[in-house]
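lol ok so funny story. i was supposed to be doing the assay writeup but got distracted and ended up predicting the structure for this chain instead. priorities right. anyway since i did it might as well share w the group, maybe its usefull for someone
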Amino acid sequence: MNERSICEMCGLYGPSGATVCICCGLVVDRQECATTAASGTQPCLADFDYRPAETDTEIFKEAEALYLSSLFVGNSASEMGYRREQVLENGDTFYFPLGWIGCGGNLVIKNPRRLISFGSYTGPVAHIWAYYQGIGMAPLGKDRINNLTILDIQDEQNTLRVLKTFLKPGWVDELLPKLASLPVEIKGIDLYFGIRGLLQATENKWFSFHVSN
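and the output, tada:
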């Protein structure tokens, strides 16, 4: 049986043997994807200055309490596989890698204290990258509205493909003439399902952008 194709940009599955994504139009080339992944351009945890968390501090204990109270209702932390030594921190967040079905990990923001649970749409490092871009990651789409300003375009074809991952087709058609005169701001949109495409755009320098609330 042939393996179903999955688009590296929008994350949707296509028919077995498909060479082009039926959603965004990206060419599905496994060899090209392997080359890109091996090039070292994708972000990793070290890029965000993570280190083992200092678990004896008050701020960690407060962050841990928030994390555990949200995730382990009716179960002990140890039963779920939680280990303090797995937690990482940087200057402004704690990263708790243990999630559950449909969740790939969690961030606790140090100030003000709040929890961000990652979905399963893309990996935890991509979610962390999205957080630092300012992309909303609330559970409900109505609560994660952003504005996206396109500053510069180097590859129009791939730029349009990325935009199609989070904009309605009609919006992209209306936007196309405006892209001739940059910058262009797109207001009031949910960028969550555009994380993969926006990350690829950054890695490959297809276009530059700024995210705001």
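The chain is about 25% helix and 20% strand. Strands lie at 4-6, 13-16, 51-52, 88-89, 93-96, 106-109, 114-117, 145-153, 184-190, 207-212.
back to the writeup now i swear
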